[in-house]
Amino acid sequence: MDDFEKWMKSVPTKKPDQGLDERLERLFENAEWDARKQKRIAWPIGWVVSACAACAAVGFWMGRGVVEEEPAPSTDWNTGAQTFYVIEMESEGVRNVFDVPPAKQPFLSGKTKVIIIDEAEREPVVKTVNIEGNPS
Amino acid sequence: MYTYALSLVGNAAAAEDVIHDAITSVLGSTRLPKELKPYLFRCIRNASMDVHRKNSREPALESVFEVSSVSDPSLGLMADEMLARVSPDERETIVLKLYSGMTFQEIADTRNVSVNTASSWYRRGIDKMRAEHKEEKHG
């Protein structure tokens, strides 16, 4: 860089006013909030979409056979104001992913580890439940 | 960033809007490139093009320099006049190089041209301005 370029570089340029800083600050705050929200929602959605393809077919096939043989247990999964949706189930070494209430999956029995989403919080929570009863 | 936006759109309010739009677009991108700086400047450039498309009439260009500089008010005006006489590509490259601190590689990525093209735009523009500066000093 020669003297002329250095001179050009030294000429002061205009600075944005305070308004731009404030606008950008708000923008980043909103983006951070959106990212947090997206992460919280995308996590279980992504899990369902990616994991479901392989497991759903097996689950559907297994579920179909059992449903034809015996009726689904009348498990009430609604506890007060909160509705739980089962995303993943692990039972007797078999891992399945569902987007339907577990009461519709009668082939699962006994203690079952489930990952549920609290509808209000949208946070995945791991709970061990008895398939015949309510979430513990 | 601001100097570059201002040099492209020519007025302070539009430059701020352009930066706001560019950053919104970067934050909304699902996949960001490895080199973020040229990408951000390209977003600023695209947003500026949108401003030009919306305003069919050519607006009066506001100076990128602080013409009311306390030390020497004529400095900004002189630099502004010289910058106004080079071609748009040369001007843009000079602003990116001198006032945004970009390398020729980053300028090339921003403008989607080769490094040689970016380098020769800069060199040609600076040479023209230097010659003019000499003339003014001697004349």
Task: Describe the structure in your own words.
Chain A is elongated, with a radius of gyration of 26 Å. The model of chain A is unreliable at 41-47, 58-88, 98-124 and 129-136 (pLDDT under 50). In chain A, 44% of the residues lie in helices and 23% in strands. In chain A, strands 1, 2, 3, 4 and 5 form a five-stranded antiparallel sheet that branches. Chain A has helices spanning 3-10, 18-69; strands at residues 78-79, 82-91, 94-97, 111-118, 124-130. Chain A is of the alpha+beta class. With 139 residues, chain B is mainly alpha-helical. Chain B has a single domain, classed as Up-down Bundle (Butyryl-CoA Dehydrogenase, subunit A, domain 3). Helices cover 73% and strands 0% of the residues of chain B. In chain B, α1 (2-9) packs across α2 (12-28), α2 (12-28) packs across α3 (36-54) and α3 packs across α6 (104-111). The longest helix of chain B has 24 residues, at 115-138. The termini of chain B are far apart. Chains A and B meet through α1 and α2 of A and α1, α2, α4, α5 and α7 of B.
